[in-house]
Recover the amino acids of this structure.
């Protein structure tokens, strides 16, 4: 593979069933009946012959038990299968510091970790003690991130950062103070990993923000930016953070170790 072109492996490691009123902010204002909705949980691997990058680390056993979340595959089994186990010390990107995105971060004790300064500063401070914020985080997992920073393993950025040729981190905020999206150059063109700036495609298509947000105006600005990026070249290759439709939209090739729980985007056959 070329040094600046990658394949992306999307891994569905967990799932749950909830209600639309529990997912969309102020659902009642849309004037439609409540209904069940599924939410899937993913992490992403960006790789070529030169490097492997793990984007988020999923929720932990503790985080799952406290919130009644279900594993479809143990994240560590999936990490091993994809060659991004903690022992291999892959580069790790934290799109944001919620429990389902940094739940297993402490195991990657030799990895370099990248996230936005706004995200780190918020969760390293007292804001995490507020119940509305703290619900979505685990204190010991945040402490592990703070410890990694104290040990010099965390790289912080503002605005945007070129992590490697063909991989751009873009800070958008909204869902959290420093929510990040990731633009990746693949052999099939650019792909945008929206993470939780876009939980569901419906959020963008119907202008319906997710229920948990830090800044509503920034959330809408993130929607606009994602739309602009799509229109300027990414096209339909936008990967939402929790939508069950992701594996269907990008159906075709899966990773042989996780045939029913993964899809490979942009790789060479």
């Amino acid at each position: 593979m070329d040094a600046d072109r990658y394949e992306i492996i999307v891994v569905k490691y967990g799932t749950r069933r909830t209600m639309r009123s529990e997912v969309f902010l102020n659902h009642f204002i849309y004037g439609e009946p409540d209904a069940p909705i599924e939410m899937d949980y993913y992490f992403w691997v960006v790789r070529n012959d030169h490097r492997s990058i793990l984007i988020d680390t999923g929720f932990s056993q503790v985080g799952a038990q406290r919130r009644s979340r279900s594993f479809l595959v143990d994240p560590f089994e999936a990490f091993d299968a994809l060659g991004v186990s903690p022992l291999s010390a892959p580069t790790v990107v934290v799109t944001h510091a919620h429990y389902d995105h940094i739940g297993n971060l402490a195991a990657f004790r030799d990895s370099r970790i990248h996230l936005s300064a706004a995200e780190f500063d918020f969760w390293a401070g007292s804001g995490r003690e507020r119940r509305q914020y703290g619900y979505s985080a685990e204190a010991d997992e945040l402490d592990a991130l703070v410890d990694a920073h104290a040990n010099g393993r965390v790289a912080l950025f503002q605005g945007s950062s070129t992590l490697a040729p063909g991989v751009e981190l873009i800070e958008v905020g909204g869902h959290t103070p420093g929510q990040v999206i990731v633009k990746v150059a693949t052999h099939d063109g650019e792909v945008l990993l929206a993470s939780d700036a876009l939980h569901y495609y419906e959020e963008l298509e119907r202008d319906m923000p997710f229920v948990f947000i830090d800044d509503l105006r920034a959330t809408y600005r993130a929607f606009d930016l994602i739309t602009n990026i799509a229109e300027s070249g990414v096209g339909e290759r936008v990967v939402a953070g929790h939508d069950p439709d992701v594996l269907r939209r990008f159906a075709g090739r899966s990773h042989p170790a996780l045939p029913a729980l993964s899809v490979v985007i942009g790789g060479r056959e």
User: Anything to note?
Assistant: Residues 216-234 form the longest helix (19 residues).
